[in-house]
Design a protein that fits this description.
The complex is a heterodimer of chains A (about 375) and B (about 80).
Chain A lengths: L9 H14 L6 E7 H9 L2 H4 L4 E8 L7 H12 L4 E5 L13 H6 L4 E4 L2 H10 L5 E7 L4 H14 L4 E7 L2 H10 L1 H4 L8 E4 L2 H6 L5 H7 L3 E3 L4 H17 L4 E3 L11 H10 E3 L2 E4 L3 E4 L3 E3 L8 H4 L15 H5 L31 H9 L6
Parallel strand pairs in A: 1-2, 1-7, 3-4, 3-5, 5-6, 7-8, 8-9
Antiparallel strand pairs in A: 10-13, 11-12
Helix pairs in contact in A: 1-12, 2-16, 7-13
Chain B lengths: L4 E8 L4 E6 L2 E6 L11 E5 L2 E5 L2 H16 L7
The chains are: A alpha/beta (about 375), B alpha+beta (about 80).
The complex binds iron/sulfur cluster.
Chain lengths: ~375, ~80
């Protein structure tokens, strides 16, 4: 068992595809949202829409952490690097995201900002240790998967008394975003997007478990199937969703039992609670202000909180006028509906954040799906 | 950046650090978030941290279910 190749087997995929074709009822339309960028990527890369009947449709959700990071947050990171002279440590995916004034972290770096790409929060701690005379800031972004590692780094900094280290905390919460989509007028009142179910995140769920989704299944009467990121996982999850819809059920089911339990990773959850608390408001790119959808650093770690340490004030900044990322993240539009898609906006010259990360809907569609399907 | 990967643990240094191997490359990673990691375990690796262990029995069961889904349908009619 290598946990990878087995779940990419072509014959098994054909088998599941046959089952979906046989079980999806011809008079129904099925629209499922994959919340997570990892699934968006897998769906595009393995050409999963080609294996599905025309009336089973996948809608990309907002679960790409880079895509939902608002411009104002990147502006803060650039400000710290350029105006306050800190060493800014960031994951590679954020480097090319367009920010205000035609800047990005990459451009700010070219203009002399000391911006360093890291692979792990530990790299930022090491840079702080190696540069005791400099301020070192970790630009901490992402969902529930990157938050526990940031917590480990905060605890490490406290233990070591690493006084030149701080964190610009931009961690966001998956359940809040799902609720926001289901509550949005497009879905709720206008009926523009009909969603018949969700594919729940793989790695986020290893941390939070399957339990937090039970509320959605109940409250919104939508089935949720948590799935791994391999193509067979996605196919199997779609089959499980089709079966729930056919049976009129709306339960939380777990396809990814090899990694996800109902309770999740308790040790990681405890660390997160120790280090972070809920923010009342946080802006998401494309979704706007979402209440109680993000985390901030607890008082105990205030000296490691870059927002307090550098007295930062958040300023929202508008997206490019023609960029349709917002509508795409809600499932209202498809990448090809955007007038900039593939012409002005490409992975080499991204105008919006959905084109930056390989998990973004526009980038995934550009790289793998452009010539394939109209959707 | 969600593209985390399953890797095999080949050395456990202490409660916090282990060496994993992926496609012949060895890497020092943090196991601070996962309890009771043993040599030979597969873990999902993300930003330098093991997020969870992978359960081989559950993996086999899932593959079994996938195979059954395909077998239930006659390929000549579908
Ligand atoms: S193609 Fe570019 S500009 Fe258009 S929605 Fe996607 S990221 Fe935004």
């Amino acid at each position: 068992m290598k946990f990878v190749d087995e779940f990419r087997d072509g014959a098994l995929a054909q088998g599941i595809a046959r089952a979906i074709h046989a079980e999806a009822q011809p008079h129904r339309r099925y629209a499922f949202m994959e919340f997570c960028g990892g699934h968006t990527h897998a769906i595009a890369r393995y050409g999963i829409p080609d294996l599905l009947p025309a009336h089973v449709r996948m809608i990309h959700g907002p679960g790409c952490p880079v895509c939902v990071l608002p411009i104002g947050r990147i502006d803060l990171a650039i400000y710290l690097a350029v105006k306050r002279g800190v060493i800014l440590c960031t994951y590679g995916d954020t480097l090319r995201v367009p920010a205000s004034d035609g800047l990005s972290l990459l451009r700010a770096k070219a203009q002399g900002g000391d911006i360093r790409m890291i692979y792990s929060p530990e790299d930022a701690l090491r840079i702080a240790r190696d540069n005791p005379k400099r301020e070192v800031v970790l630009f901490a972004i992402g969902f529930e998967t990157t938050t526990p590692p940031t917590a480990v780094a905060l605890m490490g900094a406290e233990r070591e008394g690493l006084d030149n280290f701080s964190v610009l905390c931009c961690h966001v919460l998956t359940p809040a975003a799902i609720a926001h989509i289901l509550d949005s007028p497009e879905v709720r009142d206008l009926g523009l997007v009909s969603l018949d179910g969700f594919i729940g995140p793989a790695h986020v769920s290893t941390i939070i478990g399957s339990q937090p989704y039970e509320f959605f299944a109940e409250e919104y009467r939508k089935p949720v199937v948590i799935a791994g990121f391999e193509p067979l996982d996605v196919m199997q999850a779609i089959l499980m969703l089709v079966r729930q819809v056919n049976a009129g059920r709306f339960a939380v089911e777990n396809e990814f039992t090899r990694a996800v339990s109902r309770a999740g990773n308790r040790r990681a959850q405890a660390l997160v609670v120790e280090c972070f608390e809920l923010r009342k408001h946080f802006e998401w790119r494309g979704l706007g202000e979402v209440p109680y959808s993000a985390l901030k650093i607890r008082e105990r770690f205030a000296r490691f909180d870059a927002e307090a340490r550098f007295d930062l004030a958040y300023q929202p900044a508008p997206d490019h006028k023609a960029c349709a990322c917002g509508a795409i993240l809600r499932g209202v539009k498809q990448p090809i509906d955007c007038t900039l898609f593939g012409t002005i906006c490409t992975p080499d010259t991204p105008m919006g954040s959905c084109m930056v990360s390989s998990e973004g809907a526009c980038a995934a569609h550009y790289t793998y799906g452009r010539h394939r399907s109209p959707a | 950046m969600c593209l985390a990967i399953p890797t095999r643990v080949i050395e456990v240094h202490n409660e916090f650090e282990a060496i994993v191997e992926l496609a012949g490359v060895r890497k020092l990673v943090s196991i601070a978030l996962v309890e009771n990691v043993q040599v030979g375990d597969f873990v999902i690796l993300h930003v330098g941290h093991a997020l969870t262990k992978l359960d081989p029995d559950e993996a086999r069961k899932t593959l079994q279910l996938m195979a059954e889904a395909g077998l239930a349908v006659d390929p000549t009619t579908a």
